[in-house]
Design goal:
The complex is a heterodimer.
Chain A (H helix, E strand, L loop, with lengths): L1 H6 L1 H17 E4 L3 E7 L2 E6 L14 E4 L5 E7 L3 E4 L3 E4 L5 E12 L2 H7 L3 H20 L4 H5 L3 H16 L4 E12 L4 H48 L3 H17 L9 E4 L13
Antiparallel strand pairs in A: 1-4, 2-3, 2-5, 6-8, 7-8, 8-9
Helix pairs in contact in A: 4-6
Chain B lengths: L1 H13 L5 H13 L2 H16 L3 H7 L12 H7 L1 H18 L26 H17 E4 L3 E7 L2 E6 L2 E4 L6 E7 L4 E5 L7 E3 L5 E12 L2 H6 L4 H17 L4 H5 L1 H21 L4 E12 L5 H48 L1 H18 L2 E4 L12 H13 L1
Antiparallel strand pairs in B: 1-4, 2-3, 2-5, 6-8, 7-8, 8-9
Helix pairs in contact in B: 1-2, 1-3, 2-6, 3-4, 3-5, 9-11, 12-13
The chains are: A alpha+beta, B alpha+beta.
Chain lengths: 282, 398
């Protein structure tokens, strides 16, 4: 066996070298990557380049060949990548500060240019970050605070995207979307004043609610009294004379013979009193 | 040489014939003229011969493994395995080197394989290797997917086909790779994670502390796998942006109340879906649920005051209502009573009137002290013993 190895040494070494060359000339490019073939420092072709309307499986991913030792592969992510901007303070036209946190989604569509200008996707991200924040600040600074919060934001985002996209093309990247993730009042006095504004508004609301409650209660009472008066008038108005007599009787009862409020009075009656009329035997 | 031949004989006997290679190795040893081999063999043969006395003798022997005690010869034979085995290993090496040269020489073959399984004529190596290959083939060619899973098959990195639940076969690993994902199970992202406060600006520039859940699953595994750098993180970021955009459209009151949720939840879901579709993310948003929408902790007291004021107002109003009920009911009662009496009165006005008068006066006068005076000659002062008595009475009574 060993002698066999020794005898066939040259053949074996040749085979091994051949295998090595074969292995290093075959490369696998997965679906998620595009690869730039660099021949002696010069990018010559792109494997599995991003094409928007080509379905997976037909894009050129898979096994490919290269000339070993002369060609080098630079692998670049083909997927959508993200660059996020650190929190930035933006001043609106009405001089209100807003803390903005945004992200952009981009994709490398021109790998050769990207390899020439930036080298790696991380470097592209590094380059895009300051551009994103300056474009964002420039665009948002043209708007009022209120419009930053609501409807007009969409339009602003489109402008920012286009602005960033123009710059990103230099690096072979296409910006797909820019979005504000966070738009907050900055910590410190703006936030505190917002809080105290909210507090004052709530206190005002509380006072208003209380006053409204009292007002409603008063109205309810008055209405009830009016209703009662109406009921009384309807009933008693039928015969005011009898009402006077009837009510007087009730009143005498309540005043002079009230069991609940017992207390003797001394009544001084004249014999001419109507009650004593019969005393006289007339 | 006699002792060697004895040992060989013993070896034959000990191995019960089935293990002839022992003999072979012994023979090889003798053939190479190795003294130590022979010595060992003779040393071991002694206890076998002398039976019970063997313990002492073996202790005096130079043999490296001292036999622990008197044993029967069969066991003593097996005790002596290690040295013999090592000897045979040497032989194997030697035999291998010699191999090609004198393969015709008898006995060399028998010493070749190192393991006790030499009876099979093969070592473990092919079995182990075969097992590894089999396992590799089995795990990388047959794929069992659960009912909620889907897989993508790539041939040398190039996407070739999807596989679905059940068992599927692919080419083995380096050629075809399979990535499997759970596509139907709903994933839940809770934003923010934990109990942290997340303040968002509403359309009236107030802040609301909000937390919500996004439920989603994979709609298109191919897009999900190949399109985005980090799909899970993308879902979270899009959720955040969409929720903020939606919150910024409603005032604080609505954001905190039920009708706001009814607007915010579907709106955020639509927004997220639109963005994720634009990214070709292959993600389907099942729903967005607002877990809580509270005032910020710093102004919570003021909000409590509002609800306290609300309760106070409600209390005032219900008190007034109760009073109103009382008053109107009483009026109605009084009126009804008057009506009843009046109906009777109209039938016989004079009699009823007098009857009522007398009845009332009866009650009134019977409950009080009475003094009857002539109307003429009114006294200017009243001695009135009754009055004095009346004044004293309560004191006594009490």
């Amino acid at each position: 066996m060993l002698t066999f190895l020794e005898e066939q040494k040259t053949l074996l070494i040749g085979l091994a070298a051949g295998a090595l060359v074969l292995i290093s000339s075959v490369v696998v490019v997965p679906e998620t990557e595009q690869a730039v073939v660099v021949r002696l420092g010069d990018p010559v072709r792109v494997i599995n380049r991003f094409q928007p309307r080509v379905d997976y499986g037909n894009t050129g991913a898979g096994l490919t060949f290269r000339i070993p030792f002369f060609e080098r592969l630079v692998r670049i992510d083909k997927r959508m990548l993200s660059v996020s901007m650190e929190s930035q303070q933006v001043l609106s036209t009405d001089q209100q500060p807003l803390e903005v946190d945004a992200y952009a989604r981009f994709r490398i569509i021109d790998p050769v240019r990207m390899v020439k200008s930036a080298g790696t996707t991380e470097k592209v991200e590094e380059q895009l970050q300051p551009i994103l924040s300056s474009v964002l600040r420039q665009e948002l600074g043209k708007r009022s605070f209120q419009s930053l919060l609501t409807a007009e934001r969409g339009q602003a985002m489109l402008h920012i995207r286009d602005g960033l996209d123009r710059e990103a093309r230099e690096y072979g990247a296409q910006v797909i979307d820019v979005r504000i993730k966070r738009a907050d009042l900055p910590d410190g006095s703006p936030l505190d004043s917002a809080f105290s504004r909210m507090q004052a508004a709530r206190e005002q609301e509380a006072t208003t609610i209380k006053a409204q409650g009292l007002k409603a209660a008063q109205i309810i009472r008055a209405e009830a009294e009016a209703q009662a008066a109406k009921t009384y008038a309807e009933a008693f108005g039928k015969d005011p004379g009898f009402y006077d007599f009837y009510r007087a009787m009730q009143s005498y009862d309540t005043t002079f013979s009230n069991a609940a409020n017992a207390g003797k009075s001394t009544l001084i009656l004249s014999p001419d009193n109507d009650y004593l009329r019969q005393f006289k035997g007339k | 040489m006699k002792s060697i031949s004895d040992a060989i004989a013993l070896g034959w006997a000990a191995m019960a014939g089935g293990k002839s290679p022992w003999g072979g190795s012994g023979g090889d040893g003798s053939g190479s003229g190795k003294g130590s081999d022979g010595g060992e063999a003779s040393g071991e043969s002694d206890p076998a011969k002398e039976g019970t006395e063997g313990g002492d003798k073996s202790a005096g022997d130079p043999a490296p493994p001292p036999p622990p005690g008197p044993r029967n010869p069969w066991l003593s034979g097996s005790d002596s395995k290690p040295p013999r085995r090592s000897a045979s290993m040497d032989d194997i090496l030697r035999a291998r080197i010699k191999g090609p040269g004198g393969s015709g020489g008898g006995g060399g073959r028998g010493g070749l394989p190192p393991f006790p399984r030499r009876a099979d004529g093969r070592s473990w190596l092919p079995i182990v290797a075969g097992g590894v290959v089999g396992l590799w083939l089995l795990t990388s060619t047959a794929h069992m997917l659960g009912s909620n899973e889907q897989g993508l098959v790539s041939t040398f990195g190039r996407y070739s086909r999807p596989i679905y639940s059940g068992v599927s076969l692919t080419l083995p690993w380096p050629i075809e790779t399979v990535t499997v994902e759970d596509v139907t199970s709903i994933r839940r992202d809770s934003i923010p994670e934990g109990d942290a406060e997340k303040l968002m600006l509403t359309s009236d520039q107030n802040l609301v502390d909000i937390s919500y859940i996004v439920r989603w699953n994979i709609k298109d595994l191919k897009l999900y796998t190949f399109q985005l750098d980090d799909p899970e993180d993308t879902v979270k970021e899009v959720a955040e942006a969409a929720m903020r955009a939606s919150i910024a459209e409603v005032p604080l009151k609505a954001a905190m109340g039920g009708e706001g949720r009814a607007y915010l939840e579907p709106k955020t879901r639509e927004r997220m879906q639109a963005v994720l579709d634009a990214y070709h993310s292959g993600v389907l948003i099942q729903g967005v649920e607002i877990k809580k929408a509270n005032p910020p902790a710093k102004v919570n007291d003021a909000f409590q005051k509002v609800s306290a004021a609300q309760q106070e107002a409600n209390r005032d109003i219900s008190n007034a209502n109760a009073w109103a009920q009382q008053v109107t009911a009483r009026a109605q009662g009084d009126a009804a009573a008057f009506d009843k009496v009046y109906a009777q009165y109209k039938l016989a006005p004079d009699v009823t009137r007098r009857r009522m008068y007398y009845e009332t006066m009866e009650r009134v006068l019977s409950a009080n002290d009475k003094v009857i005076l002539q109307s003429s000659g009114v006294n200017t002062y009243l001695p009135l013993p009754e009055i004095k008595q009346r004044a004293a009475e309560p004191k006594e009574g009490q």
